[in-house]
What does this fold into?
Amino acid sequence: MPQEKTTHAGEPHEAGTSDRLNWLRAGVLGANDGIVSTASIVVGVAGAGATPAAVLTAGAAGLFAGAMSMASGEYVSVSSQRDAEQAMLAEERAELAEDPGAELTELAGIYEARGLTPELARQVAEQLSAHDALGAHASAELGIDPDHLASPWQAALSSFLAFSAGAILPLLSGVLLTDPYRVPVTGLVVILALTITGTTSSRLGHAPRLRATVRNVLGGLLAMAVTYGIGTLVGHAI
It folds into this structure.
């Protein structure tokens, strides 16, 4: 009687789950950056006694600049990664064409080193190579899936949107409210938003929620306090 397959709660088993988690984690971090940097700009300018129009101008400029910086950085990073992966795949494709027998032996050796018997390792290597030789070698040797290389444009767009989504809340609170409510309410909005991103990040990484959330909130409040202090000093000096 075949043994029924069991799974554990919270344990990913589907192909591509790790990639999706990485994308979600990157999105949460991008939103977190948008919250902290934009809120810091808003309270810093507000601390200098700026008008709502000046706060809007500075906050909107900071939002767009930060989102573009995140997007361009992610595009360059993922493009470099993709170029390197394509170069490795091209080299592996050439080796398979030149000496498939040696590559088959190499693949069998990899599975044997992972604990399979020599006979079973050879059989697995032969079956995988017959189905998709490049895919089998790329996965075992390089840790690459040739059919699912990262997209630089997708990474850039995701970073842009994540940063903008995080930045919009402190920007709106800083623009729509007036003194003396602007700074404290923006601080409360930031605490709430950072609590959400910190909790989400800890869940995705299976880390202790309280520690991660408190660390996230304190870091954001520290950044806001510093920029507010700088804005106040500069505003009084000028």
Summary: Residues 32-226 form one domain.
